[in-house]
Amino acid sequence: MKQGQPSVLTITNGITLTSKIPSKKKNGPYGEKDLYGNSYYGQLGLLVNLSNKVSLKVAYNYLNFSKTKYFQYTQFDNLLDSVSHFPWGYINNYHLAPTVYSPAIPYQVRQQELHLEIRYCFGKWFQGLNLRFIFVKGQL
Questions:
Q1: Number of other residues whose CB lies within 10 A of the CB of residue 55
Q2: Which of these, 9, 72, 74, 79, lies nearest to 43 by C-alpha position?
Q3: Does 22 have pLDDT greater than 60?
Q4: Domain ranges within the chain, ordered by starting residue
């Protein structure tokens, strides 16, 4: 293969589609769960031999996934049952009524990565320099 020409070109990707919703179990006063939703991964890479001893690799990765954070908590409210009257005053009779709340917070995360790598050979030893630039963005 000639020097300076691409020797390896890689392209990979993957898609996952999910729509799982947790059941709302009333098994405790508090709970939380992370669920993954749809996700996509893509990668494009290029390896070029600059000489017999030097090669350059450039790669771009993209990751996009959705997640949902589910919380469950219980709030106990005092509810008035009755009022007992006595000659000296009265007593309010309450009971605790539990209310279970299950809010969901969906969010999405995107990550992009640029990878640069230079490999060079000195005799029997390989040396390399790697640079990675990672950009992450999330939104609710």
A1: 20
A2: 9
A3: no
A4: 6-139
